[in-house]
Structure formats: C-alpha cells, structure tokens
C-alpha cells in the first residue's frame, strides 16, 4: 500500500489506466488471456494507439517516460492465480539502434527492465478480445498497483521524463487555476482565502489569483545560474531606489531559498542573476557609452548557453533577468532572444520600448534609505489618522516627457495643489505625502518612479500620469480600485478631476490602498504576498503561459 498508494494518488487514475491497458495489451500479444468479471469496478476505453503512449515510471524518483521514444520488447510473462509479472526491455530508441549496430541479434541486450504487477486479481477465464482489437474495453479492480522499474542505463529518458514531469506539473496548475477562475466564490476555501486575501475587491480575479499563488508555493522552482562573479553577478544594491534589484537577487541566492532548486531538470525557470545597477556602477564610464553593459550581458548568455543545454532548448523563453535600473531594457538588447523571448522583469516597463506584458513583468520601484522604509512611511495609527488638507502634491525634477506639462500648469499655482519643482529645504517631502489626499506620479526620465510605492505607503492615492507605463502586478491587481489614472492631455483639468472624486470614493480608494500596501513591501525574510513573492508570482504566471515541449 504505502509506496504504491502514494504513487496512486500522485499520478491519479490516468496512470493506472495507461499502465493497466499497456499491461493488457502486452498480455494479449503473448496470447495469454486473463480476466475476471467478478472483480470489475471501473470501465475504460482507449484507442490502441494510446496504449504505448505513456509508460509511467514509478521507480524511486517518480519519473514519467514517453514511450514514443522507448522501445519495449516483452521477454516473458509469468502468472500465478493472483498475480502477473511482465518482463520487458525498455530502452530509448536511440540506444536501441546504437546497440543493434554493435550487437546482432538484439537479444544480446545485457540489461532488462521490469514491469511488476502486484495485487492484480485474475482468473484464467476467457480474455474477451482477439489480438487485432482496435479499442480495448476492459474492467479491472481498483486495487491494481503498478510499479515499473526502468533500467538505470536509461539516462536519456530519465532526463526527458524529468522535463515532462515539470511540464505535467504546470499543466495541472493551469487546469486548477482555470477551474478556480470560473468557480463561484462559494467554492473557495473561505477561511484560508479570507485570511490571505481579505479584500477581494482589489484583485481582478481573486479566486484565480489565490489558486495560482498556492500552486506557485507548491510547485515553482527556479534554477539560479552559478556563472559569474560578484559584484556583477550574485549581488546587487539593497538600498536606495534600486533596492529591489539586490534584494531579489540576494533572496534567490540564499542557499535554502524556498523557490530555488539546484537541479536544473526540475526547474520551471532559469535566473540570470546579474545586477544591471552594479554593471552600471562598475562598468560604465561617463565618457564612454553603455556598450560594456551589453557586452557583459551578451558574454553571460554565451557562457551559460555553452555550459548548459537550457538556454538553447527554449531560446531563453524560460529564462528571466531582473533589473530595476533604468538601463535594464538597454542591457537586455545585448541578445535578441533575451530581448524578444526571455522574461524581463523590470521597473522600467515602457511598452513603447519593447516591454511586452505577456512575457515581461513590471517590478515595483521601492526606495529604501539605508535599506529601510522611511519612518514617516511606516504603517502606523498616526499615518492612518493623518489629516489631509492638501488635494494633490508633487515635488521633483523636471525631466522626461510628462513633468514639463505638469509644472507648466500647476507649479505653485494653487495652495490646494502643492506642486514644486524642487521642494524647499525646510519642507519635508513625506510630510506632504502624508498630508495630501492625492499624490501626483508623473513619469520622469523613465516611466517608473519610486513615488508610486511611496504614495501607497503614505496612503496618498497615486495619480498616475504616464504614457505606455505597464503598472506593477497589473495582471492581478485592479489598479483602478486604489489609484487614479489621468491622461496626460487632461493635466490642465487635474484639479477639477480630483475634486470630482466623491468623499465616498476617496475613502474607498484609501481603504484599498491600505490593503494592497503589503504587495509593495519588501520584508527580510520575505512574507507571503509581499513584493518579493508577488514578483515571483508574476514570473510564475508568465511561465504558465509558456508551453515547452
Ligand atoms: C492456485 O490454484 C491452484 C489450483 O486451483 C491451487 O492449488 C493453488 O494453491 C493456488 N495458488 C495460490 C497461490 O493461491
Ligand atoms: C480548507 O483548507 C484547510 C487547510 O488546508 C483544510 O483543512 C480544509 O479541509 C479546507 N476546506 C475545504 C472546504 O476545502
Ligand atoms: C547553443 O547554441 C550556440 C549557438 O548556436 C552554440 O554555440 C552552443 O554550443 C549551443 N550550446 C549547447 C550546449 O549546445
Ligand atoms: C528581436 O529584437 C531585435 C531588437 O533587439 C529586433 O531587431 C528583432 O527584429 C527582434 N526579432 C524578432 C524575431 O522579433
Ligand atoms: C517610453 O518610450 C518611448 C519610446 O522610446 C519614449 O518616447 C518615451 O519618452 C518613453 N517614456 C518615458 C517616460 O521615458
């Protein structure tokens, strides 16, 4: 029971079906017929072509072998009143042809694989099918346990089977998520759901997100390449505006990281752990161009694609890089496949610069002075109760396409709208955020800005003023429930637009903002549903979109 029972549940009924059908087929070919009508419990029907499709190797490592790549030859069938054992050779076809060339005839195979069948109740009554059957219909006892022990020499199918296990796991996850996304909320595991996602309003499809998150926790494995030396690889900034870049890399580098695997055959995705911020810091020379960054990235990919088979296998589609620095996209141009195929996780998510939301993911930009959130932005009662006399606040440099328009119309025009180019020294930036209802978040040099997360922390509703910016976690979060998006062309009407938001709606936005805060926070160690995990989840979702054969 024990071992078998576990496999039985692990592989589900299909494996039992295929295994059993394969067995019946083998038996029938040996023109020995066994059948017992009295033990019939379930009935199955499959085309014969399916019979040899899949052999489940429930050996020690629970691997699946695709039998289209395997030659199976029956050596013998032994039976007693209560059990049947079928011995057969099972080898990869490539090996068979190699061996055939060396040894002729083929029966000189030095090895054999064994299919054991135990607990299979049989009686030597008539077998109801002749050998030319097109379909098999038979009934069997639910107590059948199959154990296929494949030969250790089968290196190739072992690897192949490990990969198919990965794909099979993903396909189960997809099914489960689809099921959850279409099920009504009453089907949810309400207790756990309410603890984990207490405010469903802010999510696009809370049930699907919840299921997907749980599937990620259960299955997701990342292989981190070991190539490269710190500080350019395996390290990154953990402070200041690009902190999330280093924090993510360091988290994945931890030896016992929950989502890390050291077995590349079990990985769903492969991480290229270099830091664009550190590339800029160590390789960029003001007098030169950014070419050294690209050279590094291109060399790195050459290195890993020569040392390992994984990059070439998918053209990088199951690989990801992560960068918060503005030059992440530029660095990714070093290699066409990195740019066009890989998952690029970046703060600078400008969709008119090749950011492709179906395969790339937006990283939130989180500014951490000395590695910490500013005390004024920490969650507290005083922050919640903070009076908000100002309507909309902005202070920052005039650069990029949007800010000049904003400043032109609002710079120190209206006491209710404190808009500054640079904040006078005696004023505190975060005090303004805490005392404003809305925080204006225009793009700067690049689309992303740490302002967005700071506004979330300050419970100041972000007013997003940008073009082509793909917002962080936009595939799971409903940004319109906790932020306001204003078209750049509407900037002259900004005050009017903000004034038209009712108190009721404002309170609701603010309440939701408080709920989503945790998705934008970095913790050490990371907590469930925080920015680290939401980023991983974005990668997981993109990997789910990808079907590798
Ligand atoms: C198998 O059947 C024979 C004859 O019916 C019987 O003598 C023998 O004990 C049975 N063996 C087992 C293992 O049940
Ligand atoms: C909900 O989850 C808990 C913990 O995994 C489990 O014990 C419980 O049976 C589940 N309830 C439903 C209705 O699935
Ligand atoms: C991957 O492809 C590149 C370029 O075609 C080649 O140089 C490299 O050897 C390949 N890697 C492996 C592991 O075969
Ligand atoms: C890949 O990206 C490059 C730019 O880096 C572009 O020139 C090229 O056309 C893209 N290739 C494909 C197949 O999209
Ligand atoms: C986004 O990319 C486009 C195209 O390169 C560029 O014109 C625009 O300025 C970028 N946006 C920002 C905010 O940098």
* Parts with pLDDT < 50 across at least 5 consecutive residues: 1-96, 98-158
Q: What is the CA-atom radius of gyration, in angstroms?
A: 30 Å
> Main sheet: which strands, in order across?
10-9-11-12-13-14
Bound molecules: 2-acetamido-2-deoxy-beta-D-glucopyranose
> Structural class, judged by helices and strands?
alpha/beta
Helical content stands at 25-40%
> How far apart are the termini?
34 Å
Beta-strand content bin: 15-25%
Tell me the major beta sheet. Answer: 6 strands, parallel
Number of helices: 19
Q: What number is the mean pLDDT?
A: 76
Which word captures the global form? globular
Number of domains: 4
* Total strands: 19
Keywords: Glycosyltransferase, Golgi apparatus, Membrane, Signal-anchor, Transferase, Transmembrane, Transmembrane helix
GO molecular function, one term: glycosyltransferase activity
Membrane topology: Single-pass type II membrane protein
Subcellular location: Golgi apparatus membrane
Question: How would you describe the overall organization of this protein?
Answer:
This protein is an alpha/beta fold and 549 residues long. Helix content is 37%, strand content 17%. The chain has 19 helices and 19 strands. It has helices at 2-29, 48-51, 93-102, 155-182, 190-196, 206-219, 243-253, 276-283, 291-307, 310-314, 328-332, 336-340, 381-385, 403-410, 429-434, 451-457, 494-499, 503-516, 531-545, and strands at 42-47, 54-57, 63-66, 70-79, 84-92, 113-118, 135-140, 145-149, 222-224, 260-261, 269-271, 319-323, 343-346, 361-362, 390-395, 419-420, 436-442, 461-465, 484-485. The strands form 5 sheets. A 6-stranded parallel sheet has the order 10-9-11-12-13-14. Residues 333, 336, 339-340 line the site of one 2-acetamido-2-deoxy-beta-D-glucopyranose.
């Amino acid at each position: 029971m024990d071992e078998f029972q576990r496999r039985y549940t692990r592989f589900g009924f299909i494996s039992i079906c295929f295994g059993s059908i394969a067995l019946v087929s083998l038996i029938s070919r040996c023109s020995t017929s066994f059948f017992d009508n009295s033990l019939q419990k379930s009935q199955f029907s499959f085309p014969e072509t399916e019979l040899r499709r899949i052999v489940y190797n429930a050996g020690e490592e629970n691997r699946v072998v695709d039998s289209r790549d395997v030659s199976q030859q029956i050596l013998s069938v032994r039976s007693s009143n209560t059990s049947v054992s079928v011995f057969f050779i099972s080898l990869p076809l490539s090996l068979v042809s190699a061996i055939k060339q060396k040894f002729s005839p083929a029966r000189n195979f030095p090895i054999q694989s064994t299919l054991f069948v135990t607990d299979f109740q049989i009686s030597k009554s008539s077998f109801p099918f002749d050998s030319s059957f097109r379909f098999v219909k038979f009934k069997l006892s639910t107590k059948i346990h199959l154990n296929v022990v494949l030969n250790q020499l089968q290196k190739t199918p072992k690897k192949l089977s490990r990969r198919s296990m990965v794909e099979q796991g993903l396909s189960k996850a997809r099914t489960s998520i689809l099921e959850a996304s279409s099920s009504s909320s009453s089907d949810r595991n309400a207790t756990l759901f309410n603890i984990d996602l207490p405010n469903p309003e802010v999510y696009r499809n809370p049930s699907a997100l919840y299921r997907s998150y749980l599937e990620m926790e259960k299955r997701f494995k990342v292989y981190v390449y070991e190539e490269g030396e710190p500080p350019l690889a395996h390290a990154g900034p953990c402070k200041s505006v690009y902190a999330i870049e280093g924090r993510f890399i360091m988290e994945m580098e931890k030896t016992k990281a929950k989502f890390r695997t050291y077995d590349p055959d079990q990985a769903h995705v492969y991480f290229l752990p270099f830091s664009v911020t550190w590339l800029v810091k160590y390789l960029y020379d003001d007098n030169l161009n950014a070419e050294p960054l690209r050279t590094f990235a291109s060399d790195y990919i050459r290195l890993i694609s020569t040392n390992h088979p994984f990059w070439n296998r998918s053209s990088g589609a199951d690989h990801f890089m992560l960068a918060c620095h503005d030059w992440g996209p530029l660095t990714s141009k070093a290699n066409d496949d990195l740019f066009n195929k890989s998952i690029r996780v970046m703060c600078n998510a400008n969709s008119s610069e090749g950011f492709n939301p179906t395969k790339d993911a937006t990283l939130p930009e989180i500014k951490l002075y000395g590695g910490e959130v500013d005390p004024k932005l920490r969650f507290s009662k005083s922050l919640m109760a903070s009076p908000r006399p100002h309507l909309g606040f902005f202070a920052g440099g005039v650069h990029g396409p949007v800010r000049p328009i904003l400043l032109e119309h609002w710079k120190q025009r209206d006491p209710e709208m404190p808009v500054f180019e640079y904040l006078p020294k005696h004023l505190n930036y975060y005090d303004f955020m805490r005392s404003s209802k809305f925080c204006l978040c225009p793009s700067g040099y690049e689309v992303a800005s740490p302002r967005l997360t700071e506004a979330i922390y300050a419970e100041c509703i972000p007013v997003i003023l940008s073009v082509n910016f793909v917002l962080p976690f936009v595939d799971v979060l409903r940004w319109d429930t906790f932020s306001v998006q204003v078209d750049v062309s509407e900037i002259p009407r900004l005050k009017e637009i903000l004034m038209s938001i009712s108190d009721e709606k404002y309170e609701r936005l603010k309440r939701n903002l408080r709920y989503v805060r945790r998705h934008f926070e970095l913790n050490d160690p990371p907590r469930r549903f925080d920015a680290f995990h939401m980023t991983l989840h974005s990668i997981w979702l993109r990997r789910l979109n990808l079907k590798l054969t």
